[in-house]
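Run log // design_07
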């Protein structure tokens, strides 16, 4: 199921983050805002088209991740996945270990966990963000066995 397209003023967002609001960057953010799950660079390149070369795409996604516009997601593969953060509710994912189906998890009980973590460490005063992904076997894969 596709997520609703989120209305975000991407040119203003880019400028607010200290980045140039180029047509390519705006198009990439508009494209990512319509996607329902995190994508690899190769999947973005394939779906987005040859409007942007691979090196520029990597660099742009990393710039966006550094600024908190997109999030780098680790699905325990040898490559990163990316999803837009701007205009979306904070969430996590559950990933099927067999077919790699991805589903958003809209529950996040991180405040208590973050407070507990900070009480147990000595060299940190605050947490800026966190990443939590769940892995399992989806119902379809269980039925097919």
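design_07 sequence
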């Amino acid at each position: 199921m596709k997520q609703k397209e989120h209305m975000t003023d991407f040119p203003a967002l880019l400028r607010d983050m200290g980045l140039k609001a180029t047509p390519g960057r705006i198009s990439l953010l508009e494209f990512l805002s319509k996607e329902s799950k995190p994508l690899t660079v190769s999947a973005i390149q394939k779906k987005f088209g040859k409007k942007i070369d691979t090196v520029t795409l990597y660099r742009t996604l990393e710039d966006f991740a550094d600024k908190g516009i997109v999030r780098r997601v680790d699905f325990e593969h040898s490559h990163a996945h990316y999803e837009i953060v701007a205009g979306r509710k904070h969430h996590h994912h559950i990933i099927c270990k067999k077919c790699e189906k991805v589903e958003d998890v809209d529950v996040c009980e991180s405040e208590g966990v973050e407070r507990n973590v900070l009480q147990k460490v000595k060299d940190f005063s605050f947490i800026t963000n966190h990443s939590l992904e769940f892995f399992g076997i989806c119902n379809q894969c269980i039925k097919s066995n």
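Strands lie at 39-40, 70-73, 81-84, 92-96, 102-105, 133-136.
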